[in-house]
Amino acid sequence: MGPEAARALLIIDDGLVPHSGRALARAVDQGSMVRLRRGVYVESAGWQRLTKEERLLLRVLALATASRSQHVFSHWAAAVLLGLPVPRRATELVDLAVDGTRNRTIAGARVHRLALRGEEVVEVHGVLCTSVSRTAVDVAADCAEEEAVVLADAALAALGTEGKQLLRQALDLSERRRGAVRAERVIEFADGRSGSPGESISRFRMHRLGFVAPKLQVRFETDGFLDVADFGWEEAAAAGEFDGEVKYRSERYRRGRSVEDVVIAEKNRENRIRRRRPRFARWDWSDLQEGRLDAILRRAGIPKREDPT
């Protein structure tokens, strides 16, 4: 859901309709409305259907709507406006950038003192936020490294062939001291070929576990079929796949096919890849959450680096 679709869900009390404020307050008390900011509401039924990321987007738009001054959103708030991935744990508070000379707090917001140049601020459907490259740099410097890699991978995919250079330039221009070393490490590791947050997290954990770095989006031609594996290790004759549920649940990926048809197609694809790479590993979110990735890759014969640092 983009900013325009999200904005359509907001109910604004602009004070022009008599007694509307009291009616909305009663609706909040009765549970049929959720109050996001003073004078900004959303229907409870619609709110319950939203993902955590979509709820963050509404919080951002509600703050922008309710504020008299125009804010610049940064970090994860900027990411959600720009359509970049946001971790679920970061969706409760709205990130704001303020001039380094200002010291202020805003309810429901994380306030960051950032010196921003004009080109580092962009407008998304009437809302100001940090640019893709600046957002990736700020997250890389200030947030958990694994989450920063996910965002940096997506940023590189959005920025194109010059993406890594643009991230390095953004880091240099930011004149950061705190977190700069970590940001440099994230930028160096980031790869725009990563196909999803699950693939980015998998790659990051492979590195932390000491495995040899895989090639990404490895293509195989077999019997007239072109198949792409998420990860490949040519010397080990191995391939790997992160198996997210979206390919089975999302209509965009199923393209009119039933879940059963998608499962069968995936099995046939895996069999073709196995003919080219006999060692094959597959894992999902639960494997990442439960720490089973090391054992899965070991069983598939994926080698570890001689120097695991």
- N-to-C SSE string, H for helix and E for strand: HEHEEHHEHEEEEHHHHHEEEHHHEHH
Our count of domains comes out at 2
Total number of helices: 15
Q: Order of strands side by side in the largest beta sheet?
A: 6-5-4-8-7
Number of β-strand runs: 12
Largest sheet: 5 strands, mixed
Mean pLDDT: 90
DSSP helix fraction: 40-55%
Determine Rg (CA atoms, Å).
22 Å
Give the helix/strand class. Answer: alpha/beta
Low-confidence stretches: none
- Beta-strand portion reads 15-25%
Distance between the termini: 40 Å
**Shape, principal axes of CA atoms:** globular
Characterization of this structure:
With 309 residues, this protein is of the alpha/beta class. The protein has two domains: 52-189, no CATH class; 197-299, Trna Endonuclease, Chain: A, domain 1 (3-Layer(aba) Sandwich). The protein has 15 helices and twelve strands. The strands form three sheets. A five-stranded mixed β-sheet has the order 6-5-4-8-7. Strands 9-10-11-12 form a four-stranded mixed β-sheet. Helix 7 (145-159) crosses helix 8 (163-174) and helix 8 packs antiparallel against helix 9 (180-189). It is globular. The two termini are 40 Å apart. The mean pLDDT is 90.
